[in-house]
């Protein structure tokens, strides 16, 4: 049986986390995940990727609160192998 920690909220939130298993959920419960490429991908100038509307927007001064862009983001482009391996 595989058990993972369940947490809701911000990254690194581990206070009060409890181990859960599939049997903690009803049989007809569907798990789902979602992500947004701009927030995780990074590598804005690699692999033939062209500028997106969000690249143009975030590089315009004053458009984001702290000047953040998705140029690196969480850098999934370079880290995907580590992410995939961590599930096995």
Largest sheet: 2 strands, antiparallel
Q: Strand arrangement, largest sheet?
A: 1-2
Question: Could you tell me the number of beta strands?
Answer: 2
Low-confidence stretches: 5-11
Distance from first to last alpha carbon: 13 Å
The residue-averaged pLDDT reads 80
Count of helical regions: 3
Radius of gyration: 18 Å
Oligomeric assembly: single chain
Number of domains: 1
Beta-strand level of the residues, as a percent range? Answer: 5-15%
Cα shape: elongated
Description:
The protein is an alpha+beta fold and 88 residues long. It has one domain (4-85). Helices cover 23% and strands 7% of the residues. It has three helices and two strands, in the order E-E-H-H-H. The chain has helices spanning 37-40, 53-58, 76-85; strands at 4-6, 18-20. It has a two-stranded antiparallel sheet. The chain starts with a strand and ends with a helix. Residues 5-11 have low confidence and may be disordered.
């Amino acid at each position: 049986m595989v058990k993972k920690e369940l947490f809701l909220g911000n990254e690194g939130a581990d206070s009060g986390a409890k181990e859960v298993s599939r049997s903690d959920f009803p049989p007809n419960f569907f798990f789902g995940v979602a992500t947004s490429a701009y927030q995780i991908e990074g590598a804005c100038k690699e692999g033939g990727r062209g500028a997106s509307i969000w690249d143009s927007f975030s590089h315009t001064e004053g458009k984001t609160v702290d000047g953040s862009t998705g140029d690196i983001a969480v850098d999934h482009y370079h880290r995907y192998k580590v992410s995939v391996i961590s599930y096995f």
